[in-house]
Amino acid sequence: MRAGIILFPGINRERDIAIALEQSLGHKPRLIWHRETELAGIDLAVIPGGFSYGDYLRAGAMAAQSPVMRAVADHAARGGYVLGVCNGFQILTETGLLPGALLRNAGLRFLSMDCHLRVERSDTVFTGHYQRGQVFRAPMAHGDGNYFADAATLDRLEGENLVALRYAEPDGAITARANLNGSARNIAGILSPNLRVLGLMPHPENLVDKLMGGADGKPLFDSLADIGKAA
Amino acid sequence: MDQAIDATLARSFGLSHEEYGRVLSIMGRTPSLTELGIFSVMWSEHCSYKSSRVWLKTLPTKAPWVIHGPGENAGVVDIGDGLAAIFKMESHNHPSFIEPYQGAATGVGGILRDVFTMGARPIANLNALRFGDPSLPVTKRVVDGVVRGIGGYGNCVGVPTVGGETNFHSSYSGNPLVNAMTVGIARQDKIFLSAAAGIGNPVVYVGSKTGRDGIHGATMASTEFAADSEEKRPTVQVGDPFIEKLLIEACLELMTTDAIVAIQDMGAAGLTSSSVEMAGKGGVGIELDLDSVPQREAGMSAYEMMLSESQERMLMVLDPAREAMARAIFEKWELDFAVIGRITDTGRIVVRHRGRIEADIPLHPLAEQAPLYERPYSEPLKPASLGPVEDPSGLEAALLALLACPDLASKRWIWDQYDATVGGQTVKRPGQADAAIVKIDGSRTALALTTDCTPRYCAADPETGGAQAVAEAWRNITATGATPLAVTDNLNFGNPEKPAIMGQIVAAIRGMGNACSALDFPVVSGNVSLYNETEGRPILPTPAIGGLGVIEDAAKAVGIALKPGLDLVLIGETRGELGQSLWLREILHREDGAPPAIDLDAERRNGDFVRRLILDGRIAACHDIADGGLLVAVAEMALAGNTGATLHPIQSALAPHAFWFGEDQARYVLAAADSAAILRDAQARSIPARLLGSAAGAELTLPDGTAISLTDIRAANERFFAAWFA
């Protein structure tokens, strides 16, 4: 499995995701500058968190217009894998690779804390090392994580089973209290119809080592390491 | 400009009659407006430390592990493996009252630049905040803006905000304190300094364009506030954390090469202080051509450009052979890069603009003849000790009242707005340990970071308060298992021209110096903020200490969380000191008496004992005893671990409220499985220690048998911010 991390000016969790990928893959992922126009030789493109272009226009909106995102779209169209975390998720919705939008958090404040995520399906390359219904902990750190889509889109996502992760209580209950940023139907992460693009707001890459308080996020990267292994 | 240049104008720039006389004698003529501006900012309190310098020189600054002490952009200490920690704390008090969001945000930006300008990648931010009376609407506005500003900047640049402290007192109502600290890591053989060298070398400007913002900010930071202070809003700078992030990456990329001869950020007094200090330290001259300066606005004068405090700008002296390569790096990051001058051998700063020489000043006298005052001071009187006080409330009611008061209330509302995990190296986040623990990427080593000061102690007895601030920082680092290495100080006081205020400064520095010496905890960087007064009313003296320690194996660091089945052990002597305690203030509504005595020998002995136990793996949790005393410390450990405890009745001659709420120093609460062995070892070393009780369940059972549920304790502790910002 060969991974590449897309770098936009203002991205700031590229080293975090590189550490998590390297730990599970056993090799350093490639770094891909935003001016590059082709993604040759990688299986997985990762768009990390941060504040691309300062989030000054709208989170992810400017990065979505950059040359490398056309290459990411081509990569996805060829059936390549794409993971967008936090700002990366916002960029994926801005490019239309995933539906919906991330609005300001319901409380209108930046939220930095651990949340609990319930795994809605485990038959994807992103979640294979989790069990369906399993709850894991992950830090979140965002001001614009409130997932929004119209009711028809939400119904389609649910109907096609494309919701990957939901904000939950530690026991798995889906409650308003667990839904810290106010996301529609507690949605924390969604998949493309071919299950090869995942966008999520929280940061499993920041919880892959007991020393940092837990390894709850590590199965996600272990799952990705299986890409290309005997299917 | 047709303005007459005379002593009256000089006074409006903040220069006294005598100081203006000195300008005339150095120049041998009437200065130009730009020259007068340069003198006024370089000789401002903020840039020259003219009131505090004679006293700052008395602080201990050396140790075998200190690589660079005060005098560089930030302090540098050896942390092993060829690495250095580079850190400093700096105030942005005045701007944060006038415009809280931008004032706090640019405070974070400024201190970040002080650290990465030396070649370090910033790995942690902390902030020490003091706000006014929470019942005033203005305090709520300032708290909200400052917290949003710190978060808005730090979250965007991607440096985790991992710690700090927040207190409230009415003396800060018109003058809040925002002290921001940044810590970075560099290789010891890749540390960059600011002394310019190489006659003919290009002087290069990088970063944001220059605008008219922040002109005379350094002078504003050197005067008292009056009722019209909000009219000074135009002198507050506006931050752009996105540009700062690009600047960090571009500078660090350039720093992997050998292109940079010298580098300094443009902080207070902008282009003036960076160019004057770089050339002055290098013993060379500098010529600037302002027509080449990237400008955001049309028609700016030389005066405006030299004094602008536009943010996110750096000045570098480059090896001319590397100029093209350096330019390519900054173009890649889409930042301005402009050669705006040359290093000369004249020993002068010469500023050209539109074909005219706007300033031509000899650098040596500008630095050497800068004013230096031994201001008159009155030695503070030692307060009378408190004497016995009655307990009107009992332990349970007092504990809940203390945990609910703004100073002890959970600060979760604040830290939940700061990204504490970016970077992926945060071992102990806010609230989990007495000091934040941040690991160094690719190493087992971690840093322990804290900020501390107890202003009410400093007001009652500045010398004891100064020593206590240092001792508490040392103790907080020790309580994680780390070895304290060095401090940065941020001295916030009122108007030094008043002998009583100057007396506070002198006594606090004396106390700090004694503690730093006794604890081998030297001062390696710092900042002084004076004139913190509003309409003649000074703030409490607030010498904030930023402490840094190191632990070789991050996995050995402990936090404060109780776990079931452990015993609780008290280390240190308890005399029941209630003078200046929070119990006295919250229960009896009195703010008098002497602060707890500082015994630096006991501090060291007890701390070294505790640290050894932690590193030997014999302790599961440790918390120092500070504001609120022993019972508050135990309750905080219970909340952090979501585990209750049963406290035994104590055989003591002290009244229960003095024993449980006294703020005696040099004490720790340990949670350990084998308490008997620890008590034995303590006895063998003549260290006071006693068994307090044991941890289990979901209630805290007080020594009088009263049981309080953790749910009730947590509700009391969380109530203040939840209600304030509901």
UniProtKB/TrEMBL annotation, chain A:
Keyword list, A-Z: ATP-binding, Cytoplasm, Glutamine amidotransferase, Hydrolase, Ligase, Nucleotide-binding, Purine biosynthesis
Pathway in which the depicted protein is active: Purine metabolism; IMP biosynthesis via de novo pathway; 5-amino-1-(5-phospho-D-ribosyl)imidazole from N(2)-formyl-N(1)-(5-phospho-D-ribosyl)glycinamide: step 1/2
EC number assigned by the record: 6.3.5.3, 3.5.1.2
Active site residues of this protein: 86, 203, 205
Source organism of this protein record: Acidiphilium iwatense
Protein name: Phosphoribosylformylglycinamidine synthase subunit PurQ
Annotated transmembrane regions: none
Assembly mode: Part of the FGAM synthase complex composed of 1 PurL, 1 PurQ and 2 PurS subunits.
Catalyzed reactions per annotation: L-glutamine + H2O = L-glutamate + NH4(+); N(2)-formyl-N(1)-(5-phospho-beta-D-ribosyl)glycinamide + L-glutamine + ATP + H2O = 2-formamido-N(1)-(5-O-phospho-beta-D-ribosyl)acetamidine + L-glutamate + ADP + phosphate + H(+)
Biological function: Part of the phosphoribosylformylglycinamidine synthase complex involved in the purines biosynthetic pathway. Catalyzes the ATP-dependent conversion of formylglycinamide ribonucleotide (FGAR) and glutamine to yield formylglycinamidine ribonucleotide (FGAM) and glutamate. The FGAM synthase complex is composed of three subunits. PurQ produces an ammonia molecule by converting glutamine to glutamate. PurL transfers the ammonia molecule to FGAR to form FGAM in an ATP-dependent manner.
Subcellular location: Cytoplasm
Record NCBIfam families: FGAM_synth_I (TIGR01737), PRK03619.1 (NF002957)
Gene: purQ
Keyword Nucleus: no
Automatic annotation (TrEMBL), chain B:
Name of encoding gene: purL
Domain PurM-like C-terminal span(s) in chain numbering: 199-353, 563-695
GO molecular function annotation: phosphoribosylformylglycinamidine synthase activity
Active site (record annotation): 46, 92 (proton acceptor)
Organism: Acidiphilium iwatense
Function: Part of the phosphoribosylformylglycinamidine synthase complex involved in the purines biosynthetic pathway. Catalyzes the ATP-dependent conversion of formylglycinamide ribonucleotide (FGAR) and glutamine to yield formylglycinamidine ribonucleotide (FGAM) and glutamate. The FGAM synthase complex is composed of three subunits. PurQ produces an ammonia molecule by converting glutamine to glutamate. PurL transfers the ammonia molecule to FGAR to form FGAM in an ATP-dependent manner.
Annotated catalysed reactions: N(2)-formyl-N(1)-(5-phospho-beta-D-ribosyl)glycinamide + L-glutamine + ATP + H2O = 2-formamido-N(1)-(5-O-phospho-beta-D-ribosyl)acetamidine + L-glutamate + ADP + phosphate + H(+)
Assigned protein family: Belongs to the FGAMS family.
Residues annotated as binding substrate: 91-94, 113, 237, 309-311, 529
Protein name listed in UniProt: Phosphoribosylformylglycinamidine synthase subunit PurL
Subunit structure, interactors included: Monomer. Part of the FGAM synthase complex composed of 1 PurL, 1 PurQ and 2 PurS subunits.
The keyword ATP-binding is annotated on this UniProt entry: yes
Binding of ATP, residues: 49, 88, 489, 526
Annotated pathway: Purine metabolism; IMP biosynthesis via de novo pathway; 5-amino-1-(5-phospho-D-ribosyl)imidazole from N(2)-formyl-N(1)-(5-phospho-D-ribosyl)glycinamide: step 1/2
Chain sites annotated for binding Mg(2+) 2: 114, 265
UniProt keyword Repressor present: no
Binding site for Mg(2+) 1: 90, 527
Residue intervals of the Phosphoribosylformylglycinamidine synthase linker domain: 9-50
Highest taxon above the source species: Bacteria
InterPro entries attached to this UniProt entry: PRibForGlyAmidine_synth_PurL, PurL_linker, PurM-like_C_dom, PurM-like_C_sf, PurM-like_N, PurM-like_N_sf
Compartments it resides in: Cytoplasm
Domain PurM-like N-terminal intervals: 71-186, 433-551
Keyword tags: ATP-binding, Cytoplasm, Ligase, Magnesium, Metal-binding, Nucleotide-binding, Purine biosynthesis
Entry's EC annotation: 6.3.5.3
Main subcellular localisation: cytoplasm
